[in-house]
Amino acid sequence: MSRLSRALQTSSLRNTSCTLKGSVLAPPRTQIARSSTAASTTATTDSPLAAHLNTVFSPLQFPPELARRILTHGSHPEAVHGHNGRLAFIGRRVLESYYLLFVHDSAKASAEYNYDALSERALNSYVLGEHVAPQWSLGKVLRWVPTIPRNTIEAAREHLPDAELTDALSVNPGVVRSVGLYKVMGETVQAVIGGVYHQFGGSVAHRLFHTRILPHILLPNQHGGVPMEFHARALSISERMAGLEAKELKQ
What we know:
Helices cover about 55% and strands about 0% of the residues. The chain is mainly alpha-helical.
């Protein structure tokens, strides 16, 4: 089955919420009950993580446990208590569905597109990590451990002594790509979408896609991103749904 066919079959994502049956996550709008030991080891970090997401995506309110999962990569020691892998998996499917539905609705009747190639070009984790994650300041809060030796990181810091992670993205892309940062950040963007879809429903996730993701992956005159012929419609939809800097995600 093609990606477009899957997207068309899941068009109800715009109006539904995800229950994640069998998931270790709690049902939407609830928090998971954890053992006192696990809760005590992460209690000091849960609130700041939720506060960050609540600020970036106001007026949405993320439960601390959900925020912790979204912002914990599988490489981090605390990942034993849950990480963002499952949410990223869901988020990839949600993003792909919304994007391909957008392309299908916007395409000229006479045009033929390779939907698999379009999806890979615009939604791969490196594009999301480089162009969307910094907009949400995810580098300030994401919990992860690079897979390269510490001395390599220290060498990079000599060139970026006081730069924040979001600044490093633009100052030295070669270093951050070698660390795997773009990929990890892109997967976190996917996890955010998966978490929003799970917690707040498809309508909110659909609005977030059009106002907080699609405008940042247009990338004019670059190889990746959304093809030029779709840019005008993407910006029009974004403005109609509240614009690039939308604060109100709810209908």
